[in-house]
């Protein structure tokens, strides 16, 4: 908490510096630059404050206009970012690890790992998999918001709940300022600390990012550097689910802090650094800009033209001779006409692109105490015991991409935009070696060079039809033969008074499983696998009707050789050899033979009548193999609320929302792997779900300040109140938050 107070003091003392905030709305992602909506006002207008000033003096208004965009990670193509007009809406859920609409399973506490309940929203596991469960916190090139602003922008946020023993705190800040019209710099800071309502559950994460850009006519550049530190305490879940599902079975009542957990003094730590640069040189043409007649320069009157003659005596002689005056005026008019410069704009036709992306990761799993002797089903793979150990793996990934872009509309033989690219990737990963002893560490190092080539064709101009299709093929390295093909399209048209948007996405991936699926070494888990390529085929569509606020998303995916983590449990029996007292744990990698099909449909419908509003989102899913890929059949979010104003300036949003998903054998969490793994079907499995989670809230917004009070899980009581197997939902708690925008 002292670090939070220190940060607050520093930033509030430096409010003359610029900052701005980020988005709240992607149902999945929450974080600066990670996910949908915008925390700033639309920025179109003037802001003026006279507090603490002498109002008898005339002061200039501070301009607050700004423009924002994201970039494509591969080649740095600028992607416009739409503003969110419903600024304060859902602000009470902005800090929720379970997502804006409760679409994730997690471990309960702020800052814990999470996994999407909707399979279509789960990313394909990459080679640095330990960062993926923290996507709400992790910074990537595609979720940074770059800002062009007339005035420095500042946003400070603070979210809190609970006490010093169980509370959760998060401080966030965003800064953006222009050096000139073409260049800008900024930074963002994110610090969270969740102590946890249950024992041995504390999480701490700190992230800092510096970013900037230069947008000249011929040379463009975007760059950022990000440093992230994540420290997660692992408690292995509670010892007995009955503490939550049937507390009456115990002789006394237990508070959340009284419930024993499986593990203590076990931690996971992730340090992740990203250094990213994308720049391009544009070759193009200059084109005259059409200027409206009202803005075109007007020929000066004759009396003003004649004043161009500096000599008074000469001017008098000319004015005295009418013929000479007419001739001189003709000459002056021609001279004035020749001085007029037609405004021109630079049109890029071809771009030469280079992108450099460097990622460094350090993952530690360590324990300061003795792990229960029955927790693992085997002795340590190295060292003499599980007492006071540390497992470590680290990775370095350097990716260079060179691209050639033929811009859309300026090549007579190719009206669409065409891009060709080649990528070289160097990867080095360190894993513990069997030669490691209690006193000395040894590592096995895995290096590989990958080379891929690909291309894209796209049409983004116009209002009706847009599309983009591309492919990438790997030529050299362990991924040689991998292939990815994808395409997106959207069609926009009018239907009566409605604007209808149809979106389509299709992809085919024949890819090698991520590195840690094939190789992983630690004291608790060890494997060296030879896996087949995984094949994924997906078709997805979306129908959006803006006027009725209706959105329908549907998709189907077929997966061959589905690769995933699976738990393997070994029963531990009592002295009589009949009753199971606990289980020995292990995790393995499985490739599912044959194919698995997933069907999914999501309907979002927002209703409004006067001050009454009702937002709804429901997802239906079907998995053809519920043992290898368990999914909830229905996931639901519903949010009735009213919106009104007090004294015409204070916007109030008052409501209650509910999260719900049907029961299913959810993936268990493997604390010594920092990943989710399906439950062992050979043993008794646990179901979670079929339990509503109710929250009541009030959102307040006045000018550039907004805040909320959110009473979460106010229906806490008996029932299967779990976010993940053996990880309970936090009991009733009251959350507070504030966000303040500044323009200096």
Structural features:
744 residues, mainly beta, three-stranded antiparallel sheet, Maltoporin, Chain A, globular, 6 helices
Reconstruct the topology from this structure.
Blueprint: H1 2-13, E1 46-47, E2 62-63, E3 66-71, E4 78-80, E5 104-106, E6 114-116, E7 146-149, E8 153-161, E9 168-178, E10 183-194, E11 203-215, E12 219-234, H2 242-245, E13 266-288, H3 302-306, H4 312-320, H5 322-339, E14 344-367, E15 390-406, E16 417-432, E17 443-459, E18 465-476, E19 483-495, E20 498-511, H6 515-518, E21 519-521, E22 526-528, E23 534-545, E24 550-573, E25 580-609, E26 612-623, E27 634-646, E28 650-661, E29 668-670, E30 675-677, E31 693-702, E32 705-712, E33 722-724, E34 727-728, E35 733-743
Antiparallel strand pairs: 1-2, 3-4, 3-7, 5-6, 8-9, 8-35, 9-10, 10-11, 11-12, 12-13, 13-14, 14-15, 15-16, 16-17, 17-18, 18-19, 19-20, 20-23, 21-22, 23-24, 24-25, 25-26, 26-27, 27-28, 28-31, 29-30, 31-32, 32-35, 33-34
Structural write-up:
The structure is a single chain. By secondary structure, the protein is mainly beta. The chain has one domain: Maltoporin, Chain A. Helices cover 7% and strands 50% of the residues. The strands form seven sheets. It has a 22-stranded antiparallel beta barrel. A three-stranded antiparallel sheet has the order 4-3-7, with no helix packed on it. The longest helix has 18 residues, at 322-339.
């Amino acid at each position: 908490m002292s670090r939070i107070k220190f940060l607050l003091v520093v930033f509030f003392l430096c409010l003359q510096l610029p900052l701005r905030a980020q988005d709240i709305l992607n149902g999945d992602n929450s974080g600066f630059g990670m996910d949908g909506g915008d925390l700033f006002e639309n920025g179109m207008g003037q802001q003026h404050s006279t507090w603490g000033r002498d109002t008898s003096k005339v002061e200039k208004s501070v301009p607050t206009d700004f423009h924002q965009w994201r970039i494509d990670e591969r080649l740095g193509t600028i992607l416009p970012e739409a503003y969110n007009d419903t600024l304060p809406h859902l602000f009470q859920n902005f800090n929720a690890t379970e997502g804006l609409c409760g679409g994730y399973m997690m471990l309960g506490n702020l800052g814990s790992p999470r996994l999407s309940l909707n399979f279509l929203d789960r990313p394909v596991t990459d080679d640095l998999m330990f960062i993926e469960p923290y996507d709400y916190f992790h910074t990537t090139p595609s979720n940074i918001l770059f800002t062009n602003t007339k005035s420095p922008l500042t946003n400070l946020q603070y979210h809190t709940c609970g006490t010093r023993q169980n509370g959760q705190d998060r401080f966030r800040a965003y800064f953006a300022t222009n050096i000139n019209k073409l260049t800008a710099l900024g930074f963002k800071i994110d610090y969270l600390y969740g102590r946890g309502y249950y024992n041995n559950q504390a999480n701490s994460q700190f992230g800092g990012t510096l970013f900037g850009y230069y947008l000249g006519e011929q040379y463009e550049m975007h760059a950022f550097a990000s440093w992230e530190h994540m420290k997660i305490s692992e408690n292995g879940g509670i010892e007995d689910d009955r503490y939550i599902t049937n507390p009456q079975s115990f002789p006394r009542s237990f508070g959340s802090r009284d419930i024993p957990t499986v593990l203590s003094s076990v931690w996971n730590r992730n340090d992740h650094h990203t250094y990213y640069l994308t720049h391009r040189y544009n070759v193009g043409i200059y084109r005259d800009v059409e200027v409206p007649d009202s803005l075109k320069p007007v020929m000066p009157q004759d009396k003003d033209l004649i004043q161009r003659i500096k000599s008074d005596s000469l001017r008098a002689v000319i004015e005295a001779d009418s013929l000479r005056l007419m001739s001189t005026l003709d000459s002056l008019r021609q001279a004035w006409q020749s001085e007029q410069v037609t405004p021109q704009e630079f049109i890029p036709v071809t771009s030469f692109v280079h992108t450099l992306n460097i990622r460094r990761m350090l993952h530690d799993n360590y324990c300061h105490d003795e792990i229960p002797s029955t927790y693992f089903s085997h002795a340590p793979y190295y060292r003499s015991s599980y007492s006071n150990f540390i497992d470590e793996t680290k990775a370095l990934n350097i990716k260079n991409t060179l691209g050639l872009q033929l811009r859309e509309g300026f090549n007579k033989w190719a009206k669409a935009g065409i891009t060709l690219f080649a990528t070289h990737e160097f990867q080095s990963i360190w894993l513990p070696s069997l030669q490691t002893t209690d006193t000395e560490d040894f590592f096995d190092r895995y290096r590989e060079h990958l080379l891929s080539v690909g291309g894209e064709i796209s049409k983004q101009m116009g209002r009706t039809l847009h599309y983009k299709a591309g492919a990438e093929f790997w030529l050299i390295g362990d991924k040689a033969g991998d292939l990815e093909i994808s395409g997106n399209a959207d069609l926009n048209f009018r239907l009566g008074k409605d604007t209808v948007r149809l979106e389509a996405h299709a992809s085919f991936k024949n890819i090698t499983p991520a590195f840690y699926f094939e190789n992983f070494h630690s004291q608790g888990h060890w494997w060296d696998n030879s896996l087949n390529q995984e094949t994924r085929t997906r078709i997805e569509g979306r129908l959006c009707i803006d006027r009725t606020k209706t959105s329908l998303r549907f998709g189907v995916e077929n997966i061959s050789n589905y690769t995933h983590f699976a738990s393997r449990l070994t029963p531990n029996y009592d002295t009589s050899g009949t009753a199971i007292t606990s289980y020995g744990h292990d995790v393995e990698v499985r490739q599912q033979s044959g194919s698995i099909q997933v069907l999914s449909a999501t309907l979002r419908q927002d209703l409004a009548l006067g001050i009454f509003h009702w937002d709804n989102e429901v997802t239906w899913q079907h998995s053809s193999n519920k043992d290898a890929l368990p999914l909830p059949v229905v996931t639901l979010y519903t949010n009735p609320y009213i919106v009104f104003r007090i004294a015409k300036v204070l916007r109030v949003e008052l409501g209650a929302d509910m999260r719900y998903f049907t029961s299913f054998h959810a993936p268990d969490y493997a604390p010594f792997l920092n990943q989710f793994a399906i439950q062992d079907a050979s043993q008794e499995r646990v179901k979670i779900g079929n339990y509503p989670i109710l929250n009541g809230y009030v959102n307040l917004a006045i000018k550039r300040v907004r805040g909320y009070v959110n009473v979460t899980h106010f229906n806490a009581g008996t029932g299967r109140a779990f976010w993940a197997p053996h990880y309970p939902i936090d009991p009733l708690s009251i959350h507070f938050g504030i966000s303040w925008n500044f323009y200096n």
